Amino acid sequence: MTVVCVQRCFIALFVLAVASVLLSTACDEKPAGAVDPELAQRHRRDVQKFVERLRQLGAAVPPPGQLEEQPCPDEQLEHQLDGGYGRMLLIDHDFLERYGQDANGVYSGERKRWSFLSARLLREIDRVSQLSEPKRDIEALVRIQKLEREYDHVAVLQTQRREAPRMEGDKFHGGVFEAWLVVFEWRTRRRLCQAEIFAESSPEVAGLTSQARDEVLWRDYRRRIDVGMDDAVRRLSRRLLLKDD
Predict the structure, then answer these.
(1) What is the pLDDT of residues 48-57, one digit of tens each?
(2) Which terminus of the chain has fewer Cβ atoms in its 10 Å neighbourhood, N or C?
């Protein structure tokens, strides 16, 4: 009788011990998809550092009236690039000023058509910044790290005049785009050079009468801006290229 009691007591104690371990393990486990709070805070700090760098870059761009044409130091760049070529990340100065200020993103609403003035990678960072935490920071950091790996130079568009083409009845008002392309080292934000851009709509689009004429006018205007930017880059440097992602 005593032996049976001892055996039962031992079994009961063993069951309690196992239950205690299982309960402790269950309490320590995080819900599926949860992120460690310290890691989440580190992600947030890294993203905030990037945002601060954007702000500093925006502040480093002089007003258009203080800019003069100046080519890039190609001999220095040739040495830095080991005789190769470097890619510049295109950033609209408006993007730098508006990033994080609009809950719907920089290029929401009527501003969407101007999104081509900033590189796709930046637009993606802007898009994922609208996601909920912690996925927002993780998605943004993936793109920020890609930017850090692939770009040593950025070209900021400082716009003076940005007027889209339009039709008023049969009267055509051509689009005009005046801006400066200002080149910086990304990590140091040291300004290297700048060139002026001027573009306007083609005069032959004035006679359009189709229902899609607004879209045709816009495509022509955008193409002319692209040509103006390419011309500015050629004047700036033989070593730096303006290519999207």
Answers:
(1) 999 999 999 9
(2) N
